[in-house]
C-alpha cells in the first residue's frame, strides 16, 4: 500500500467531532498501549521533564518557532474559524518579550497575522515562502529592519497559484464541504468536512491538476488537507534557517532553537534542528508516529502550558538573553508586561515585503 493510500485509509476511518478534531478515545487506548508507551519514552513530555530539556539550553540563546493550526489552536472544521484565544495570545506575547519568536505556518502570512495579532513576532507564511520580521516600533531596533528580513522565494509562482485556485474551486464544487484555501504561494484543499467517499475523487482531481503543471508544482499531504506548493527547495526547515540567519543567530554554539508543530510539514524543521545541532523539535500529537522531533506534547492546551513554563524560565537568570539583550531585529523587553502589543485592536496590515534578488533552485 502506498503512503498516500494509507493516509487516505486513515482519513476514511476518522472524522471530526463538534467542529474540533479530537482524539480522546485514541488517547485513552494509546495510554495503555505498550507501543505508545515505548514511543512516549523516546519522545517525553517537555512539561514533565522541563528541567532536563532546559539543561540543553544552558548558556545558549533560546529562540522559539511555532506552527499555528493544531499547535496554538485546535484543528477545527472551518479553516476560517481557527482564531487564537486571548489567553493563548497573552502567553505568546510574553514569550516574544523574552525570546525571539516566530510563527511558521502553511497559512498565508496575512491570514496568520490576522489570527495572531502580535506585531512583535517574526512570521513565515505559506510554509515559509512569505517571511517578514517584527513591525516597526514593535520591538527595539526594528524600525527599518522589517523590509530587510522580508523574503518571498516563490514570488514568481503567484500567478500560477491564482489560476490553479480558480480551477480547483470549480472542480471541488460538486463535493459538499470541500474548501480551497489560497495561501498566496501555496494552496490548501481541505476535505475534513466531506463525506468519506469523496476523498478519493478529490485526491484524483487535485493530482491531475498538479500533474498538468508538474514542472512547477508538487502536492503533499497534511491533516485532512492536500497541499500544493511550488517546486522549490524551500520548506519550513529552510525558512527556520533563513530566519536564524536574519537574526544573526545561525551559530550552533550559541543558539538553542525550539520548534513546536503538529503536522508532516513541520518535520522539515525538526530534521534541520536535529541534523545541525541547533536545538530540538517538539511534536504535538495524540498518537505514536515517526518523527524527527525529540519531545512530544498531547494538545494545543499542553503547548500553552509548556510556553507558560518557558516564560517563567525566561524571566530568570538562566535565560542568556538577560545578559545578551538583543539580536538583529529583536530586543528583550526592559520590563515584560502582559499589556504590550495590540489586544482588542484590529489586526495590523503589514507592509508588503519586497522579494530579495536570490532565488532558491527549483527541484
TrEMBL record:
Instruction: Give the classification, highest ranks.
Output: Eukaryota, Viridiplantae, Chlorophyta, core chlorophytes, Trebouxiophyceae
Query: Which pathway is this protein assigned to?
Result: Glycan biosynthesis; trehalose biosynthesis
Instruction: Provide the catalytic activity annotation.
Output: alpha,alpha-trehalose 6-phosphate + H2O = alpha,alpha-trehalose + phosphate
Where do Low complexity bias regions lie?
354-363
What is the name listed in the Swiss-Prot or TrEMBL entry for this protein? Trehalose 6-phosphate phosphatase
Keywords from the named record: Hydrolase
Which residue ranges does the record annotate as region Disordered?
340-363
Q: What are the Pro residues biased-composition ranges?
A: 344-353
Asked whether the keyword Transmembrane is assigned, the reply is: no
The GO terms describing molecular function are: trehalose-phosphatase activity
Q: Which cofactors does the annotated protein need, by name? A: a divalent metal cation
Amino acid at each position: 500500500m502506498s503512503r498516500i493510500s494509507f493516509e487516505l485509509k486513515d482519513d476514511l476511518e476518522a472524522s471530526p467531532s463538534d467542529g474540533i478534531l479530537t482524539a480522546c478515545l485514541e488517547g485513552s487506548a494509546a495510554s495503555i498501549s505498550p507501543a505508545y508507551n515505548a514511543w512516549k519514552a523516546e519522545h517525553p513530555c517537555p512539561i514533565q521533564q522541563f528541567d532536563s530539556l532546559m539543561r540543553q539550553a544552558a548558556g545558549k540563546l533560546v529562540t522559539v518557532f511555532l506552527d499555528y493550526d493544531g499547535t496554538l489552536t485546535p484543528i477545527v472544521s472551518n479553516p476560517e474559524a481557527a482564531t487564537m484565544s486571548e489567553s493563548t495570545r497573552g502567553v505568546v506575547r510574553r514569550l516574544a518579550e523574552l525570546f525571539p519568536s516566530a510563527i511558521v505556518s502553511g497559512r498565508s502570512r496575512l491570514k496568520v497575522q490576522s489570527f495572531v495579532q502580535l506585531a512583535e513576532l517574526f512570521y513565515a507564511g505559506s510554509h515559509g515562502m512569505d517571511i517578514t520580521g517584527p513591525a516597526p516600533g514593535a520591538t527595539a531596533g526594528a524600525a527599518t529592519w522589517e523590509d530587510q528580513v522580508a523574503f518571498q522565494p516563490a514570488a514568481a509562482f503567484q500567478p500560477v497559484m491564482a489560476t490553479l485556485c480558480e480551477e480547483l474551486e470549480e472542480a471541488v464544487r460538486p463535493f459538499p464541504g470541500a474548501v480551497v484555501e489560497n495561501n498566496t504561494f501555496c494552496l490548501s484543499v481541505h476535505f475534513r468536512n466531506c463525506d468519506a467517499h469523496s476523498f478519493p475523487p478529490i485526491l484524483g482531481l487535485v493530482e491531475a491538476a498538479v500533474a498538468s503543471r508538474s514542472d512547477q508544482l508538487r502536492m503533499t499531504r497534511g491533516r485532512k488537507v492536500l497541499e500544493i506548493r511550488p517546486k522549490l527547495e524551500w520548506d519550513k526547515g529552510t525558512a527556520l534557517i533563513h530566519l536564524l540567519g536574519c537574526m544573526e543567530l545561525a551559530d550552533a554554539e550559541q543558539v538553542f532553537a525550539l520548534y513546536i508543530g503538529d503536522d508532516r510539514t513541520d518535520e522539515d524543521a525538526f530534521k534541520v534542528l536535529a541534523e545541525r545541532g541547533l536545538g530540538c523539535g517538539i511534536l504535538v500529537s495524540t498518537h505514536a508516529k515517526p518523527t524527527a522531533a525529540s519531545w512530544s506534547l498531547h494538545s494545543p492546551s499542553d503547548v500553552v502550558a509548556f510556553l507558560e513554563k518557558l516564560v517563567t524560565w525566561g524571566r530568570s537568570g538562566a535565560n542568556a538573553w538577560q545578559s545578551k539583550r538583543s539580536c538583529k531585529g529583536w530586543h528583550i523587553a526592559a520590563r515584560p508586561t502582559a499589556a504590550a502589543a495590540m489586544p482588542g485592536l484590529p489586526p495590523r496590515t503589514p507592509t508588503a515585503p519586497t522579494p530579495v534578488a536570490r532565488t532558491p533552485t527549483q527541484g
